[in-house]
């Protein structure tokens, strides 16, 4: 088929792909194969790499999403030193609770900044408060993806999930199979059975428990 056309031997159906963002269109089904940095069925949405946990790890570094990647920069008035954004030592007007930056081309303008995991108070413009429970990152603009049942918390700074015992993975959705661990949770007279987030130790054939807390004999 000609580029961005698909169908039977006539190839007379146009693909819905955004051509500038698409590598090619499938000849049989019209599926769009997006270029790096683009997503959705028609390759129309720019991938936001800044929503990935722990992107631009410095407390004040700001993330800018680019096609195929991202860039880490400092807020206006802060400077990059050893991969970290350092606040200005010349702020004299604003009584910032955390960091302050002076606009380079206008020293009269001073701006307070909050570290990731906090948001600037819109009233006094100088103090910071913690993100809500399900938010994280710069100005609390990102939503945590942690499984709420299987996780203890979401790191408000970088979005990393702290899983309950028995769960693992970036979002705490993956069950830990305790029965396959090198250190077995059950003794030799019982069979280990994995369960979601936990495990059970059941007696082998020919063994039984004389009480709830006793060993299989």
From TrEMBL:
Write the record's keywords in alphabetical order, separated by commas.
Disulfide bond, EGF-like domain, Glycoprotein, Repeat, Signal
GO terms for MF: calcium ion binding
Q: By its UniProt entry, which InterPro entries does this protein fall under?
A: EGF (IPR000742), EGF-like_Ca-bd_dom (IPR001881), EGF-type_Asp/Asn_hydroxyl_site (IPR000152), EGF_Ca-bd_CS (IPR018097), Nephronectin_domain (IPR052235), NOTCH1_EGF-like (IPR049883)
Q: Which residues belong to any copy of the EGF-like domain? A: 175-213
- Where does the source fall among the domains of life? Eukaryota
Record carries keyword Transport: no
This protein is called what?
EGF-like domain-containing protein
Q: Which organism is it from?
A: Biomphalaria glabrata
Q: Which gene encodes it?
A: 106058436
């Amino acid at each position: 088929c000609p580029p961005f056309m698909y169908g039977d031997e006539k190839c007379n159906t146009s693909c819905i792909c955004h051509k500038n963002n698409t590598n090619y269109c499938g000849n049989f089904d019209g599926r769009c194969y997006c270029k790096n940095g683009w997503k959705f069925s028609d390759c129309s949405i720019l991938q936001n790499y800044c929503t990935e946990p722990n992107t631009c790890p410095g407390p004040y570094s700001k993330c800018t999403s680019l096609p195929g990647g991202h860039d880490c920069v400092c807020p206006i008035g802060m400077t990059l030193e050893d991969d970290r954004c350092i606040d200005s030592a010349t702020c004299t007007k604003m009584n910032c609770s955390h960091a302050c930056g002076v606009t380079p081309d206008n020293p009269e303008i001073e701006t307070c900044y909050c570290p990731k995991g906090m948001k600037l108070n819109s009233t006094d413009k100088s103090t910071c408060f913690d993100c809500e429970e399900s938010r994280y990152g710069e100005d609390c603009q990102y939503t945590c993806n942690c499984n709420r049942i299987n996780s203890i918390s979401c790191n408000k700074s970088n979005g990393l999930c702290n899983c309950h015992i028995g769960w693992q993975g970036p979002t705490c959705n993956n069950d830990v199979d305790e029965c396959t661990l090198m250190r077995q949770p059950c003794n030799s007279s019982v069979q280990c059975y994995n369960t979601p987030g936990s495990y059970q130790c059941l007696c082998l054939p020919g063994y039984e428990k004389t009480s709830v807390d006793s060993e299989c004999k």
